[in-house]
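Reply to dn_fold:

You asked what the input looked like. This is it:
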Amino acid sequence: MPKILKVLIGLGVAALVCVVVMWVFGAQWFAKVVSRKAALRHPVVLVVPKPLPDTTINNAPGTDETFGAYSFEAPWKETPKVNEYGNGGSTYAFGARMVTVYQRPPDELIAELQKNPQNQQNLDTLFEGDRPKTDYEFVRRILNVTPDTFTWSMSKMETMRDGMLLALKTSTAPVEGAYGIFYVTTPEFHGFQYGVPEAKYAGVSVDLYNDNVLLKFTFREGGGRPAIIPQADINRIVQSVRSTPSYLDPVYK
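and this is what came back:
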């Protein structure tokens, strides 16, 4: 079960606790204190999504790789060593360059929440009738909350809603996002990139959403060392992700 789903399973209890604590001690005061502490432990909460600054694409001759109902182009001529992990996971090793991709069902988070009527009721209340309808929209709202979001003029309901989103951000946003979170749009997908190659962190990850699937890419060096894949190479792979010609029905439907 994905980490964020484990967090969301307890959303009903967490929401109730937040309501009680904030109503007793003051929502704005509570949010200010908690958000400041969260930023110290989880720097990623300070970052919001921005347009990707480097959109160049490496169009060098390379290889075409297929995984399930999808494919991508890599700007390298090496024939990759492919490892299948089951559950839609595959790693392509182009020498020291590692590309891992997992396929997840579409709107998995929303579907999990809909199994519990209490969770749905909590979200409807917190979002005042405008709760997110897709996983992409839900994650976008989570990522756009920071400690600076909280102001003394916010209503208690707004403070509780954004407090929940901030808590989810500390628990679920990839840590490499502390070096940057960016919007990604392709012909078939939209999503987010977490991290940048020049940060020399453990890797760069990209989540791509559409109506049929969530594709989770990770770009890193063999052995888990800092990513050495340039942004232009990452862009080539991400922008080339397509449904295969034989793709007729959603994989998970």
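Confidence is low (pLDDT under 50) at residues 8-13, 19-25.
Hope that clears it up.
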